[in-house]
Amino acid sequence: MSRFTDSLFPSAINLIRLDHTHVLATFHQYEVDSRPTVKRGLVNTACTALEVHAQLEEEIFYPAVRAVADNEAIRKSVPEHDEMRRLIGRLRAMEPTDAEYDSVFMELMRDVLHHVADEETVLLPEAERLIPDRLNELGAAMTRRRLELVVPRSGEIAGNMARAMPGSTVALLGVAVSGACLAAWFGKRSRRSWQIRSGT
Ligand SMILES: [Fe+2]
Ligand SMILES: [Fe+2]
Prior knowledge:
200 residues, mainly alpha
């Protein structure tokens, strides 16, 4: 894809920050005395969003940063994702009524908060400093890959959203369909710019 079309997508930095915001908003909705169905919906939604986000970072963003920087923040990123996946695996194997369900989710939340803080204070500023010219191209690649990852899981995502509290739906919807909205928005922008250039 060209630099022009890449520039129509949000940059990788904005996409990553937006994903973090959506996941933290989902965490915020979790309450230990909520109904088990609601807990399951929120936990599964957060876990799916984290899985997709981690895969996008590992496939597209981290390699681009790793090519120009070798520091503690980038070295520990994948091991931290692996630990997050271990906790997600435990949660998926548990029932929300299990005694440890809350504490395992709290552990996941703590780990993610720490990881997000490191990314936002070290890794993202580093990328903005070292590869500013690549951030739109990486954002476009991440948006396209997100669609590939989310579309096959759309039924699962919709089920989780239905279980979660109605108040959480806005945040969850953002995680689930942001890729689709971006694609629609991009299509509209592309058609419009083509019309302008062709004078139609
Ligand atoms: Fe991240
Ligand atoms: Fe990460």
